[in-house]
Amino acid sequence: MKCNVSSGSTFYHNKMAENTEGPAEVTGNLGKEEDAGPAGGGGAGGGGENLKRKAEDAGVLPQEPDPTKRLRQEGGAGSQLTPQVAQHYNRLEEKGLAHRNQSRIFHLRNFNNWIKSMLIADTLRRLRADSPGGRLCVLDLGVGKGGDLLKWKKGGIDHLVCADLAETSVQQCEERYRSMAGREGRGPRVFSAEFIAADCAKEDLSRRYRDPDTTFDLVSCQFVLHYSFESHAQADRMLRNAGERLRPGGYFIGTTPDGYELVRRLQAAEGLSFGNSIYSITFQQKEDFPLFGCQYDFHLEGVVDCPEFLVYFPLLEKMAERYGLRLVYRQTFAEFFQQQVTQGEGRGLLERMKALETYPPHEGQELASSDPEDYAHARARLEELRSKGEGGDRGTPEHPRVGTLSLAEWEATSLYLVYCFQKVEENKDNSTSNQPQPPETSQNQSQPPETSQTSQ
Fold first, then answer.
1. How many CA atoms lie within 13 A of 70 on its CB side?
2. What's the whole-model pTM score?
C-alpha cells in the first residue's frame, strides 16, 4: 500500500507550506506566533483526529476499519538496512566534552537535549500526579550511549532498562552508568539499571528482562522510532515492545522526524536533495511515498550519516492503538518549545544547557556560524529592541542581546516533533472527559520557537 502523490502530495504540501520557521530567540513574549502546521498539539479527538480524517479524505490513509490488516501484507521489504544502522552507531567515537564544545552544531545538540529534558520532566510530573510516591520503572528504547542517564537520575526514577541495537553503544552506556553511580555522594540517588543489546524492532524484549514480570511506567524512544519504519513487521515489533509491558496509565514518549515537514521540503526542492551547510537529506524519488520502507539518507555534520525512513504519523497513531496506546499530544519542536519555555524551569534550563547562543557575542566569543545571513533574524530583532529601548533577555537597553540559534541549526532541528501516548485500560470508556490533556501552546506558531516574534 502506498501514498500516491497524485492524491496525497497536495495534502502534504498544503498542510506544511505554512510551517516556514526560523531560529530560536529568547526575549520574553509568546503572543505573536502563527499556526505552525498540522495537528499542533492535537490530542485524542483533537488535531490528530482531524489530521487523520483529512488524510483519509485525501486518499493518503485508507478508509477502512483497520488499515493495518492490509498493511501487514503490503508493508516494506523487511530488514535490509538494520546491520548498516548498527554498524554506523557502533563506529561512532566518544569524542569527549572538549570536542563537542567546538562543534558547529554545539547549540543544536544542546537544544535537542533541552527538548528531551523537558519532555521527560513533563511526563514524570504527570506520573507523579497520578500516583504520588509510587515507584517508577522506565524502558529506554534505543538508549544509545546513555545520553539521557543524567535526565533519569534528576527525574528520580527507581529502575531503568536500557536497550539498543548497537552493542558497542550499550557497553558505553553501561560504563557511563557505572561512572555516574560511583559519584553517588552528591545529588539524587542513582537508580538501578539493566542493559540489553538487542534490535528493538525485531526482538521480543520481554524475554530479556531480568525480572520476567517487569512492567513499566514510562517508555522513552528518542530519535529512534523512524528506523523501525523500514517494514511493517519492524514498526509493529517496536510498538509492541513499547506498549505490551506498559502499565495502564503509563506513557510512551519520544522524538522523531516530522514526515510532513520532510515531504514539504522535498516538494519545494528542485531535485531529490535539500539541506544547508550542516545537514542534508536525499530521497530516492519524490513521486511516490510507501507507508513503510520510504528511505532517505540523512547527513548531519559530524554526527549522523545514515539511512532513515519516513514516518506517516496518522499511521503510527493507528498502529499504536493495537497495543492500547492513545495519543495525548504530538507537537513540532517549535510548538513544544513555546509551551515549555514559559515555565521558569524551562527558561532556566535553556540557559544552563547552553541551548541558545548569545547574539551579538560577548568580547572574546565567536558565533557558531561564520555566515552573516544565519543571524539576519537576530539582527532584525535587535533593531526592534533598540527602537523600544529594551535590552532583550541577555543584554541592556544600551547593549541589547538575545539568545538564538543560527538559521542553519534551526532548519535542522525544526525537522522534528515530540509525541506522547498513554496506555489505556482494556474496555475502558473512550470518552475524552478524563483523558490527560496536551500541554497548552500559543495559538500563533508559524515563527521559530522563541518567546518573541522574529523577522526573517
1. 11
2. 0.79
Q: Reduced to 3 states, what is the DSSP secondary structure of residue 404?
A: strand
Residue 239 near residue 325, CB atoms below 8 Å:
yes
Domain borders along the chain are 39-353+416-423
Beta sheet of 25-26, edge-to-edge order = 25-26, 402-404, 357-359
d(CA 223, CA 169): 15
Give, in order, the Cα–Cα distances in Å from 383 to each of 32, 137, 168, 352.
Answer: 17, 50, 50, 27
**Could you count the other beta carbons within 10 Å of the beta carbon of residue 104?**
16
Nearest in space to 157 (alpha carbons), one of 182, 130, 191: 191
DSSP string, 127-186: HHHHSTT---EEEEET-TTTTTHHHHHHHT-SEEEEEES-HHHHHHHHHHHHHHHHTTTS
Using alpha carbons, list the distances in angstroms from residue 272 to 4, 275, 311. Answer: 17, 11, 18
For the stretch 2-60, pLDDT in tens is 333 222 332 233 333 334 345 544 433 222 233 323 223 333 333 334 434 434 443 43
Comparing C-alpha atoms, which of 260, 286, 273 is closest to residue 414?
Answer: 260
| Cell numbers for 433 | 472527559
State the Cα–Cα distance between residues 390 and 356, nearest whole angstrom. Answer: 20
Q: Which fold is adopted by the domain 39-353+416-423?
A: Rossmann fold (3.40.50)
* 222 close to 143: Cβ distance less than 8 angstroms: no
